[in-house]
UniProtKB/TrEMBL annotation:
The gene is trxB. It catalyses: [thioredoxin]-dithiol + NADP(+) = [thioredoxin]-disulfide + NADPH + H(+). SUPFAM superfamilies: FAD/NAD(P)-binding domain. This is Thioredoxin reductase. GO terms for biological process: removal of superoxide radicals. Its cofactor is FAD. Residues 3-300 form the FAD/NAD(P)-binding domain. InterPro entries: FAD/NAD-bd_sf (IPR036188), FAD/NAD-binding_dom (IPR023753), Ferredoxin-NADP_redctase_2 (IPR050097), Pyr_nucl-diS_OxRdtase_2_AS (IPR008255), Thioredox_Rdtase (IPR005982). One of its GO terms (cellular component) is cytoplasm.
Length: 315
């Protein structure tokens, strides 16, 4: 029996481990099937984390986190978690698929498994991922000051990020396969009233083009005329959906261990509590997550402090 299981080794999970162990919890295991670090290790440049003045790659940025967070006794189990169940007051962490499933009992659990942006699977997307294909305007807008950029998508996020990008870019080409949008009417109106946004509807991107320096153009097709043309831009911001990694919360009967919203994001309060006592969620898996490293780290710290309080009450 351990006191706390943390599932997911990104910024939220590592911060939770640091605060939990330094705060006095003795038996804390971090479950991450690979080396800790999370999605951010795939970023080519990070320059907006407070206190870090150098521009670093995601891998270099996360490297000292591991040393610091394991300094106080956090243990790392390199094993994939299949499911988390609760039996009475005890959680069962079912892990190690394909090698004879194992069960680790835990008094409390913090879920920090995050999520991932959906990919469009456009030709060239994988080749130029992180080199002109982005899913984070907040992270990358600064690099394209006074240049034309493209945004792909038709939901609230796509339009909101297109509006945000106009603060940096000279023009934003918003590409959507339909004439109508899934976004809220007020958001659509706000976008259409912005003269810097050029609406390309109904269009699809057929190929992302570039060279060793990254993206330099998109091939786009008008679905009404089938005419194809080249759009010269150095970046495409894709907002075609987001998937949270909530599979471990799904029970054998198909239900979820705790409450989730219509998108599958875990519903928590401001202190990262789920509706299940002793179960906390932090980072990109939770509702209304801003999907920024600094916010995920704060979530992880908050969840750990609440886990400490929960365990003290149980004892």
């Amino acid at each position: 029996m351990i006191d706390l299981a943390i599932i997911g080794g990104g910024p939220a999970g590592l911060s939770a481990g640091l605060y939990a162990t330094r705060g006095g919890i003795k038996d804390v295991i971090l479950y991450e099937k690979g080396m800790p670090g999370g999605q951010i290790t795939g970023s080519s440049e990070i320059e907006n984390y407070p206190g870090i003045k150098e521009i670093k790659s995601g891998i270099d940025f996360m490297e000292p986190w591991q040393e610091q967070c394991f300094r106080f006794g956090l243990k790392h189990t390199m094993s994939e978690v299949i499911r988390v169940e609760k039996h009475g007051d005890i959680f069962h962490i079912i892990h190690n698929p394909g090698k004879g499933e194992e069960i680790q009992e835990a008094r409390s659990v913090i879920i920090t498994t995050g999520g991932r942006p959906k990919k469009s699977n456009i030709k060239g997307e994988q080749e130029f991922w992180g080199k002109g294909v982005s899913t984070c305007a907040t992270c990358d807008a600064f690099f394209y000051k006074k240049r034309e950029v493209a945004v792909l998508g038709g939901g609230d996020t796509a339009l909101e990020e297109a509006i945000y990008l106009t603060k940096f870019a000279s023009k934003v080409h918003l590409i959507h396969r339909r004439d109508g949008f899934r976004a809220a009417p007020v958001t659509v109106q706000h976008a259409k009233s912005n003269e810097q946004i050029n609406f390309l509807t109904p269009y699809v991107v057929t190929e992302i083009c570039g060279d060793e320096n990254g993206v330099n153009a998109l091939m786009i097709k008008n679905l009404s005329t089938n005419k194809e043309e080249k759009l010269e831009v150095p970046v495409i911001f894709e907002f075609v959906g987001y998937e949270v990694n909530n599979q471990i919360l799904q029970q054998k009967d198909g239900s979820f261990l705790c409450d989730v919203d219509s998108y599958g994001s875990v519903i928590v309060d401001l202190k990262m509590h789920t509706n299940v006592p002793g179960l906390f969620a932090a980072g990109d898996i939770r509702i209304d997550a801003p999907k920024q490293v600094v916010c995920a780290a704060g979530d992880g710290a908050q969840a750990a402090l609440e886990a400490i309080a929960y365990l003290e009450q149980k004892h």
